[in-house]
Amino acid sequence: MCYMKRVGVRELRQNASVLLRAVADGQTIEITHHGHPIAQLIPATNDTWSALIASKEVIPARLTPADILDHPHRPYRHQSPPP
What we know:
Layout: E1 5-8, H1 9-14, H2 16-24, E2 29-33, E3 36-41, H3 48-54, H4 65-70
Parallel strand pairs: 1-2
Antiparallel strand pairs: 2-3
GO molecular function: toxin sequestering activity
Function: Antitoxin component of a type II toxin-antitoxin (TA) system.
Organism: Mycobacterium kansasii
C-alpha cells in the first residue's frame, strides 16, 4: 500500500525545510488547504520526459516514425479508413 503524507499549508510554512528534505529523499507530500488537496510536492528528476509521463501530461507514442513510414496506408486512430 502506498502512503502519501498530507500536510496543511500552515505546517508547510512552519516545516518547509524538513518537508523538502523528505521530498528530496523520494517521498511525495500532498498539500491541503482547509482539508482539501491543492498540490503535491514530488521529487525532481533530471529526466523531464519521464516526469511528464509520470504526471500523465503526455502519453508516450506507441509507434516510432519508422513504423509509420513502413505502413503508410495504415489508418490513424483519428482518421477514417479510405473508402
